[in-house]
């Protein structure tokens, strides 16, 4: 886990450096073209800088080991930083929409557009590369902040691609009102992305359950472990099954009803086997099992 965390931090740091470089390239492209669509792309890229910075800081905090004041660790801080990132996205979208509205009434053909195409094309390749790397690492570490960061960078890829296609069409057909219209569409899209990140982060802060496919997998492991256990006749049922996600970690707890004649050691061994089998497939899951004698199930 520490190695994975180190790799995630390294990815976020590389992303930060590239975000600064990409912003400088795009802002230069805007200055030589005066295209409001390219301006929207450059503004979105400023948010990548804040996104990479919050990802780097958030990961450093989230990877701290548990302490007496935080016995379950610090992983939920990732959701807070994801909300901060979404706030930056909202600010960028408002700025883009306002700039597009100002240019909608008097659209002008951007000068030096060919040079602008080359510059933003370079940024598209750079962003596509770091988005892919950040997403793979985020999935590998179950890190919401890295995944959110990767999604955000990918919106920048789509933004740049949309800008290039839109401006090419505008130039080919000499319809320059497309310039601010493209910016408005991209502004709305970025606003929606910020809404999705905020919704998912708040939902997780409220202890949302694990994804259904993971819950089903865990339940199947429990069922198979009990089915293959030599004392399966003395294991009656499981109930009060609950799951929750906290950053890159997941928590599962349930009650296991066993025969009242089963020894404490035998019951403890069953719990250990269940926990071991779950951990082998889902290393990010912490399992807590409460043993109950079957007499508690009687009316």
Automatic annotation (TrEMBL):
TM ranges: 12-33, 45-63, 79-98, 118-136, 148-169, 175-195
InterPro entries, per database record: Cation_efflux, Cation_efflux_CTD, Cation_efflux_CTD_sf, Cation_efflux_TM, Cation_efflux_TMD_sf, CDF_Transporter
Gene Ontology MF terms in the entry: cadmium ion transmembrane transporter activity; ferrous iron transmembrane transporter activity; zinc efflux antiporter activity
GO terms under biological process: intracellular zinc ion homeostasis
UniProt entry tagged with the keyword Transport: yes
A Gene Ontology term for the protein's cellular component: plasma membrane
Membrane disposition: Multi-pass membrane protein
UniProtKB keywords: Membrane, Transmembrane, Transmembrane helix, Transport
Domain annotation Cation efflux protein cytoplasmic: ranges: 220-293
Locations listed in the record: Membrane
Similarity section: Belongs to the cation diffusion facilitator (CDF) transporter (TC 2.A.4) family.
Listed NCBIfam families: CDF (TIGR01297)
The protein's name: Cation transporter
Organism this protein belongs to: Thermodesulfobacterium commune
